[in-house]
Amino acid sequence: MTLTSTDNGLILGEDGKVRPLWAASDPLMRQYYDEEWGMPVTDEQGVYERIVLEGFQVGLSWATVLRKRENFREAFHNFEVDTVASFGEEKVEELLQNAGIIRQRAKINAAINNARATQALREEGGLPQLVWSFKPEVTPRPLSMSEVATVSEESKALAKALKKKGFSFVGPTTMYALMEAIGIIDNHLVGSHRRGTSGIWGE
Q: Which residues form a coiled coil (predicted)?
């Protein structure tokens, strides 16, 4: 793929579409950026999956998680909340032997714990309602990657609220990444072909 840099760090691809560098070269990352990142996710299973994957990403690159995503979906039964909530220690040990996923006990336990916390939230409106209640009044409008934040007051508040409800691996930076990923904010750079495409925010 032929890439041409623009003045603000965006990359013009040979397909005529402008993307940030992180989404411009790797085909899997490009597909994720073009088709999924920043699009609204409002169902329980979808939001739960993203929280789990963002938790596994802590300390690693998103590309690492994305390449293992289908393995994660198989291992965690497509992130069906009630099924994962039923996992016991025997299942944890099985997952720790699964080379197709990230084998970290604390993160695996967090995924199970967060499924149980998601179940409990159903009595209070559900996980998506809680997460989306932290949507800010305005979205960022970064002109370059140097202007892209990694945390916000809303992500701090969301992390605090989820921890209070028993969730783990949901720090403010991780929750900011979640908010970007599921469309709560539009952090596409101004000038990107994806800016304003979520239907939540204008350009």
A: none
Token pair for 106 = 């604390």
Segments of the chain with pLDDT less than 70? 1-7, 203
Residue 37 known to be catalytic? no
Joined together, the tokens standing for residue 98 give 């699964």
Ordered domains of the chain (ranges, CATH): 3-35 (no CATH), 44-181 (1.10.340.30)
Report yes or no: 39 and 183 within 8 Å, Cβ to Cβ. Answer: yes
Whole-prediction pTM: 0.94
> CA Rg, the chain, in Å?
17
132 is catalytic: no
Contact 48, 181 (CB under 8 A): no
62 is an active site residue? yes
